[in-house]
Amino acid sequence: MSIKSFSIGNLTVEKPIIQGGMGVGISLGNLAGAVAKEGGIGIISAAQIGYREPDFDRDPLAANLRAIKKEYDRARAIAPKGVIGFNIMVALKHYEEYVQAAVAAGADIIICGAGLPTELPKLAGDAGTLLAPIVSTARSAGVILKFWDRKYKRIPDLIVIEGPKAGGHLGFTREQLSAYLDEGAQDYDEEVKKIIAVVREYEGRYQRKIPVALAGGIENREQVQHAFSLGADAVQVASRFVTTEECDADIRYKEAYLRAEKEDIVIVKSPVGMPGRAILNDFMKKVNAGEKIPHSPCHGCLRNCNPSEIPYCITDSLIHAAKGEVEDALLFCGAYAYKAKKLETVKEVMDSLLS
Asked: 227 in helix, strand or coil?
């Protein structure tokens, strides 16, 4: 496989791998810095990034804004010349403030999913930070490209296509996931081609390349090569980086991946109704049985969340995960997380994907 660098805006990325953002506390400055140092794009997740700050319980917004700068500086110290950015979910409460804090910190790029980032260009301003929406269908790609074209007279610097085999919250309904993932399911490749066709239309209008990264279930070099054959310029990879020495998560979180079998990877429902993919553990068995899990006072993570109605708190469960309290945690993962059988370094993972 011939490995090529690719350009985003005025930046050249040596290796066509974007490390996917994983919150809470899974992809922070250490992992992002390590990936950027090896020539990929390192991504810090802004989701409840300040959970370790002493005032997080009292003032989560202030804690998170402070931590955005801290984690960026930590990554930048590891990779002074690397490409480093943030994943910021549109569904976050205070999404606007987090985008502005990432820009102020010096982020090279901001990747946004969990909703369409219609206002992202306005929020980022003219600081030069590159902007990348995550889409899962040709329809959503068309909506965001058309909106940015009409309102801001610009196009994204990068498009991330996140498929149905990704981890965490997914941009599909349960019915769509069944259509793509059941035995004999339809192939997502055709949707990828349709999305790229939409992107090419806007490239023609602006006479400028929009790189495309394919994400979701990318875990070996054959899948990377397949992504390139579909027209992708890069891949976004997340789960493979969890079981690395440099990943910011507790070792017990990583060991949960190493212990997982294929049948342990399940589709779950988040407290706000979105489907996601996670490892089946005692916590999720209780949730599936209809048990309501007591939670801490609201930390203001998601916009559409009513603390009095949720079956469990996603912030609490993801903080448990990051701290290694794995039986009380929501353990988000990709479809092939069970294939991880040993701890590796970031360099080993990237070499295995691109060799």
From this structure: helix
Rounded to an integer, what distance in angstroms lies between the CA atom of residue 4 and that of residue 347? 17
Q: Which tokens sit at 180? A: 């793509």
pLDDT number for residue 305: 64
Tell me the C-alpha distance between 327 and 322, whole Å: 12
Report the percentage of the chain scoring pLDDT > 70. 95
Q: Where are the beta strands (DSSP E) in the chain?
A: 6-8, 11-13, 17-19, 41-45, 83-87, 109-112, 130-135, 159-162, 168-169, 212-215, 234-237, 265-269, 275-279
Output the six-digit token pair for 131: 């902007």
| Residue 236, φ and ψ in degrees, nearest 5 | -110, 125
Distance CA(171)–CA(187), nearest Å, equals 16
Integer Cα distance of 329 and 322 in angstroms: 9
Q: In one letter, which amino acid is 76?
A: R
> Which of 126, 57, 123 lies closest to 90, judged by CA?
123
Nearest to 341 by CA among 198, 234, 242: 242
* pTM to 2 decimal places: 0.93
Q: In the 8-state DSSP scheme, what is residue 204? A: H
Q: d(Cα 72, Cα 85) in Å, to the nearest integer? A: 8
**Of residues 107, 163, 168, 156, the one with CA closest to residue 138:** 163
Q: Average pLDDT of the chain?
A: 91
Model confidence at 141, pLDDT cuts 50, 70, 90, reads: very high
Q: Which of 170, 80, 54 is nearest to 62 (CA)?
A: 54
Residues 6+ positions from 50 with CB-CB distance below 8 Å: 56, 60, 62, 63, 64, 65, 66, 67, 68
Is the model's pLDDT at 120 over the cut of 80?
Answer: yes
Is the confidence at residue 184, as pLDDT, over 80? no
Does 172 have pLDDT greater than 60? Answer: yes
